[in-house]
Queue: 4 jobs
Job 1
Amino acid sequence: MPFDIEHLTRAVKTQLETVMAAKLDAVEAEWAAIDPLTLPDVVTWYYGHKPTVLELPSASFPFVATIPARRATVRTGYGWGYQDQNQVVYVDWFVVGADETTADKLCSRYAQALLAAVQAQRAYYGYDQLDFEPGIELSEASRHPKTAAANMFNDAEVDFIKMGRMTLEFGGNG
């Protein structure tokens, strides 16, 4: 079997880029009467892991990355030349808000929209999602400099950043 994780990860990224704006609009509309908050469209789409993401200026966010994480084989009795694989793709997102509460809400609502986006399609590049409800983890909000030259002791030059991670598991043989 080929090493398909890059193709699979790019297929997830393409799906998110295609439907995310509509999913954000739907989540925004759902919360409009309860606790309104504008959900900005993704500013930066990224393939892979970017270790310097926290150093980016606030104008680079929201930031969504699709990351090929791992591939494991599944032992089956099918014989040589045919073997199922389990592949894992992370979807990481980072949002910034003027305060901690706004960052918390943005991150949670982004999780809701991203979940709807991946649930809208079961198979990617010939692999089926194994979990309709994939795992989601959210970080704590942290102070973040708005620009590279920001003074972290000046509240006007600081906002808050929060990250989420969705773990997508896929199975099959491509």
Job 2
Amino acid sequence: MADSKKGILSIDVDPIALNGVIQTLRALDKETSKEVRDLSQPLSRRLAQALTVSAAFSAAPPQAILVARSITTPRDRMIRVDVGGPKKVGRPYGGTADARGKVRNRIAAPAGALLWGSEHGSAPKAEDRAGRRMGLRFVKTYNKQGYWIRPAVDANVQEVADEYTVMLKGIVKRLKLEGGA
């Protein structure tokens, strides 16, 4: 799920077959919810690690490594990895020169601004809002399938989702909720 205001791509692994069980677990006490969060966090971290390795060692544009620095795994009942956002990761640019000629107030690009191009590359004939040609800002040409996020998620999501399913089934069995879920 992408949040266009913040430039965050959130990768949620939600086993569709377990929606009823997840709704049941949400209705349970805080201890059970805490346990599910504790057990989901390492799975989220594993998926985040796969994304980081994919960014560093794949054929992705160089900005992928910068964007990978913004990866977080919020503590949630679901497997969740957030990529992008307001974290400053790019090279500082702009600013104004003071009386001595020293440039001040330089800013760095936020990870969210680099996210799309680091994943899909750039189209050489594309234009920005002002009608200027963009060129190959992300070195790699446009790739609809993605360079690092989608390939890493596709390669790892099944294993992580299977472990998550086993974990949730174990909790449901232990709480004797099998008949109601």
Job 3
Amino acid sequence: MKKVLFAAIALTLALTTSSCGSNLIKITVDGEKYIDKTNDITYYGAPVSYEPRTVGAEYAHYGDTVLCQIKGLEPTQWLTEAYDGIGSVYYSSDTVLPTLDMFEPVQIYICVEDAITMQIGKVDTQSEVDAIASALTDGEATDMPLAGDDSYHLKFLSDTYYGIYYDVLYIEDSASGDNYIYDRGTKKCVAVGSLMKTYLPDDVETTAETAQ
């Protein structure tokens, strides 16, 4: 069964053009702290597992780095760099970073990354989303394979944390005959057997079409 690759709609950037002028809040960097002295807010860099769903208007800057709002979230709690698969997310010191079991995911986008991120499938049945999340959160940790044949990004979506993805890797490894889910933030890797096979296409056309 063939499935056309779609550019994930939630990864489409909605950037508002502006410059690092007086209209942007100035952030001061102090070690791992990013301090907004104007509003008395301290931000920290979030682990790589956290990604913005949609990037909004430019909001602040430190040096030449512009930080933007994340649509659906308060900029006093969350900010992001311009994001096209690479970029950092920042959270304020009074914001609790949700672990995957706190995230309450309701859907998963299955994506591949090359020059751009492409959605090739999704899981939207709650019991199946829960089973995949539970495999990672409750599964026994194991060593990550040194090299896999194929890897995919599993982007968990949440109604509670609407503006961000919780992104983990799914890795197929023919050498061990097993498949794995790996959380790059917590560094936890679990073997999941054939859990994801149902959701992956047998054959994928290479023509990309932007989702509307």
Job 4
Amino acid sequence: MPISNLIAGPRAGKDVRALSVALVLALFAPGALSQCGQLIKMKSYEVCVPSGWATSERGDGDMLAACETSKPCPPFFGAAPKGITFLFVRPAEGLYGHPTYEGAREVVEARPHAGLPAPAVPEVDLGPGPSGAKRQCFMARRQLSWAGAWEEHYGLKVGDRLFSLSTRYEDRPDRIQEYRTAIMGILSSITPK
């Protein structure tokens, strides 16, 4: 099966190829990484999120919640989303009751699946990122037809640090490419302190 089908599903293969080309060009354009909408400094990492997004620290101050709105992110996510409803970034140490992980793939595979079959876990090429540290990223995507949404989980290794990112966004064909580009930009910007 082509990687574009694993990443976006059978109906979006063409869009993903176009997105891949656009993302590579954007990441390697001069000054692309220096154009950060909002630089958020957490206890153990820094991350860039788009301008105009709401952000807040959650839990112990090292988990970032971000959403595509100027209003505070909602405290629960049961309703059908509008835009990118939520995006959580956090260090993976101790997540889901695991004290340590062997790597980025295991961060995604350890995520609870609520009784559903485990989704495919392809690798995502992010390049070196702003710090130049080696990056490795895996993701799992599931379409939530009941909510008209996509839910994605990422395991990211930057140098020797592991991170987890979870997001949910509306299944709106005219905006999916925009949402996924924003998510890839956030993943590519995560830099441990």
